[in-house]
Each structure stands twice: as C-alpha cells, then as structure tokens.
Design a protein that fits this description.
CATH class of the largest domain: Mainly Alpha
Structural class: alpha/beta
Helix content: 55-70%
Shape: elongated
CATH architecture of the largest domain: Up-down Bundle
Number of domains: 2
Number of strands: 12
Length: 539
C-alpha cells in the first residue's frame, strides 16, 4: 500500500494544492525548529555568563508562537483539503456511474454505498492527519539532520544512521499489520453488502418468517472484532516506534554528554544538538502512530479508483438511421475476466429494419450480454457490430441511444405517479399520449395519477413491466426511436395482457429484439436466435 497514491495527485486538485502549501509550511516549520533550538541554547549560555537573556527569550516565545500558528494553519488546510477531496471523489464517482460513455459491469449498490459513506469519510484521517504528517516527515528530519551535521558531525551521523532504523521498523510493522487492516476493511464491506441484501429482500424474508437479527449481529460482531484487533496492533506498533526513537535519542545524549564532560564540546553546541535530535525523530514517530489512520483512507482511494478505472466508449461518429440500415453482427465474442468461458459468442447475423427477432437460449448463453453490446454498455472482446457500414464502437453512444427504446429485465421506477414513470422517456408527452401507451400494453386499469414509491413495493412485478413497456412505446411514438430492446418483457403477465403487449409490439414500425423464454413471444417473432454456450442457430 502506497502512503500517497499517484492517481490521487493526478486527479485531485485539492490534494495538489494542499501538497504545495504543505511543503511550504514544512519548510517554515523546520526553520522555526532550528531557530528555536539555537535561541534556547544561546539563552542558557548567556545565563551561565550572567548576560541578559530578554531578547533571546522573546525570540524563543516568538518561535513557539510561530510553530503553533503553523501547526494550526497546517491542520486547517488539511481539514479543508479532506472535505474538498471527499467532495471531488464523490462527485466524480456519481458522474461516472451516470456517464453514458461508461462501459463494463455496474458495481453493486452496497459497494457504492460503503465507498461513498464510511469509505470516503475515512479521508478525514487520511488527508486531514496522515498526509500532513507525511509531508512533515519527508521534510523536517532531512533539514534537521543537516542542521545537526553543521553543529556536530558525529551527532548528525548518529541521527542519520538511527533515523532510517525507525523508518525500517515502521515499514516492517506496516507489512505485519497490513493483513489485519485489510480484513477490517473487508469486514466493513461485507457488513454493508449484508445489510443491503437484507433490505432488498426484507419483504420476502418477512413473508417467510426468516428473521435476520442473528445474521446481522454476527456480521457486526465480526467487524467489531477486526476493529479491536486493528486498534491493538496500532497500540503495539506505536510502542515499538517510541522505544526505537527513545533509544536513538539516548545514544546522541550519551555521546554529547561524555564529550561535554571531557571538554571536547561546548555546552551551547551540546544543547543545540540535544534539542534538535528529538525533533528529527518526532515527525517519523507521529507518522507511524498515524499509519493506521491512513490505511482505511488508502483502501478507499484504491477502491474508488478501481471503480473509476474502466473502459469508456470512444466513439464520436454520427449514428446512421436504424430504420434504414441493417444491424450486422460479425464474429462477436464477449469475454469477462472472472469467467473462463466467453459470456457471448455469435458468429454472424444480420437484423433487418422492421424485423421482430426473439433471442432465446439457456441461462448464461449471453442473451442479456447481447443487449448490453447493442446498447453500448459492453465492448466486444473480438468481432464487431456494424450499423450499416459504421462500427457501433465508433458511434457516439448518446446519439445511438436516442434511437433506442429499452426495457430491462428489472425496470427502474422513480418516486411519482404512474404518468411520471411512463413520461420519464419524454417529459413533453401529453396525458392523452400517456393514457394511450398504457392502454396499448394492457395497462388501462392503472390510474396515471396513482402514486408509486421508488422501491416499487406497492405494485406487482407485472404492473411494473407494463409501465416500462408503455414507457418504451411512448418513446417510439413521440421520440422516434427505431429500435426496441426488451429483456423478458412479459414475465409475470397473464395470457390476456401478454397478448396485448405482443399486439402492441407487432404493430410498431420498428426493429424489435426481445429476449424471451415464453413460447408465445417466440411464436410471434419473425425469426428466432437460439443461443448456446458456443454457437448460435438461426430459425
């Protein structure tokens, strides 16, 4: 795990701005530390010679005040940077999830919730505390050792040799504790996924009398144990770093003390060395204590960029009119990293304008993947899809999708009326057009003024699908969509309403590609594509 991910520097202006300010504050802090040590040593030396120390004492107080002000300024800048970084990443993740050029599988909702919530909240410790200390630990010790070398080369050599030992111990401790901290982050993600899954299936679980208190308690206790284990390791690692730093400073003190006794070194130089030596170790010790603050933040950074780093649609060409050209599939293969076999393999197929094509096959044969390719959500691994003579990957996805009406297997709803959900594809549609679309798909019994919740737990699965089909139908009627893609649109419908939907689809002057298992849809199609794991048979 890197203390500062380079991707965070490249993508976050707040982090870049903070690093510039942090380096400047670190340099001034080092100057104040050296000046303070020198002034204290001068004050003590003057006291031994019965000289006035008012000026040096006032200067020492000014150095203390300057260091306090710099510390306050550093914490303020770091805290504001943490807020800015969280805001930037949250905005970037949300925009990425809504980006029409995004390709690849959508992340699970529980993963996104965990990352946007407690994941990015850990930036308070990562950017607000760890990064400021990381900057100071990178600047202050080097400059302080340089100052010690000027005053006493032997002491500077001792500090220069022993300080890397503290860093080595810190790295070793980090390697030992990495697994523990990784387990804690994984347990937090597992807790979020479990809770989200329980919420999603709460109605079904309640109907069947399955209580989830025990499962939630066990997952929560597992997360609590991992957190306590991480805190225990953090305490022990801090103790080790403190011990190493104390012994290192003791070596310098013994060396200086013996030479002062032997009159090989002046008291003033000895005091400067003794005051500067702990300051060289202090930033590293504090960095080690804050290492565990950085872990959750670094994990969140990695998870965020893993979510953001994916393929994007690169096409910018204009889209041909689907109503006038063929849709040609050539040696199409789609592979996923987590699957040994291709998710879809389709050798050659031509879909002509106005055709009604049913795609069928066993589960896992690539039916939904084919729709994802046609929608531009997934890029082919090999082969291509052409619209007339233009490669689909070269077409601007927004222009392409304007010609498509899509009904997914699990249609989404928004909180609002039935009419609002049907009109979601076209806000300018009139109430008469909305009612006509509902009537055509056998949903005349649904009152357009009926209020629906976003969770759709107040309507049946069949009603939900009919609303989605009416939405697609309205898009064809009012927006001029020329291609309809549907995934199991009549699942959960009775024979009468299924007949209404099929009649409405058959009456449309557009190309219709529908994933289907029900024999009624297959019988109503002009052609059937039967997918298997490795071949496609046209019927």
């Amino acid at each position: 795990m890197k203390p500062l991910d380079p991707r965070l520097i490249r993508r976050s202006r707040a982090v870049r701005r903070y690093l510039v300010v942090g380096v400047a504050i670190g340099l001034v802090t080092t100057v104040a530390i050296v000046a303070q040590a020198v002034l204290i040593a001068v004050s003590v030396g003057r006291l031994f010679h019965s000289q006035s120390v008012v000026g040096p004492i006032l200067a020492v107080v000014a150095c203390f005040g300057l260091r306090a002000a710099l510390r306050w300024a550093h914490e303020v800048v770091a805290s504001r940077s943490a807020v800015a970084v969280k805001s930037e990443l949250r905005g970037e993740i949300v925009n990425d999830l809504l980006d029409p050029r995004r390709q690849g599988p959508a992340p699970s909702s529980s993963r996104v919730i965990t990352l946007l919530g407690p994941g990015l909240d850990s930036f308070d410790g990562y950017v607000g505390r760890f990064l400021p200390q990381f900057v100071l630990a990178s600047i202050v010790p080097v400059l302080v050792i340089g100052a010690v070398l000027v005053v006493d080369p032997l002491s500077g050599l001792i500090v220069g040799i022993t300080l890397p030992l503290s860093i080595v111990f810190m790295v070793l401790i980090g390697l030992v504790t990495r697994d523990t901290l990784d387990k804690r982050w994984q347990s937090l993600e597992r807790l979020g996924r479990h809770f989200a899954d329980v919420l999603d299936g709460l109605v079904v679980l309640k109907i069947f009398g399955r209580r989830q208190e025990r499962g939630l308690r066990e997952v929560g206790d597992r997360h609590r144990r991992e957190t306590v284990r991480a805190l225990r390791v953090a305490f022990l690692s801090s103790l080790v770093l403190e011990l190493v730093a104390t012994l290192s400073v003791a070596l310098v003190a013994v060396s200086v003390g013996l030479r002062v006794v032997d009159d090989d070194m002046t008291l003033q130089r000895a005091l400067i060395v003794l005051l500067l030596a702990p300051e060289a170790y202090l930033p590293v010790r504090q960095l080690g204590m804050m290492f565990h603050d950085s872990t959750a933040g670094a994990e969140a950074v990695g998870d965020a960029f893993e979510l953001l780093d994916h393929d994007r649609h690169a096409g910018w060409a204009s889209s041909p009119d689907i109503a006038r050209v063929d849709l040609i599939i050539e040696s199409l293969v789609v592979e996923h990293d987590d699957r040994s076999a291709p998710a879809l393999r389709l050798d050659a197929e031509t879909i002509r304008p106005g055709e009604f094509v049913a795609v069928t096959g066993p589960s896992g044969s690539g039916k939904s993947t084919l729709l994802d390719v046609l929608l531009g959500f997934v890029a082919p691994t090999r082969g291509r899809v052409t619209v007339g003579t233009v490669d689909l990957c070269a077409i601007d996805p927004e222009l392409w999708r304007r010609q498509i009406a899509w009904v997914p297997q699990f249609p989404g709803l928004i909180e609002g009326t039935v009419a609002d959900n049907v009109r979601m594809a076209n806000n300018d549609a009139t109430p008469a057009q909305v009612s006509a679309a509902l009537r055509e798909v056998g949903a005349a019994d649904l009152d357009p003024r009926r209020w629906l919740s976003e969770s759709a737990d107040d309507i049946s699965a069949g009603e939900r699908r009919r609303i989605a089909i009416a939405r697609a139908l309205l898009r064809v009627r009012t927006e001029g969509a020329a291609l309809m893609l549907l995934d199991e649109p009549t699942a959960g419908l009775d024979a009468t309403r299924e007949g209404d939907v099929l009649n409405a689809l058959r009456a449309l002057p557009v190309t219709v590609i529908v994933v289907a298992h029900r024999p009624e849809i297959i019988a109503a199609a002009d052609r059937v594509l039967r997918l298997t794991a490795s071949t496609v048979v046209a019927a």
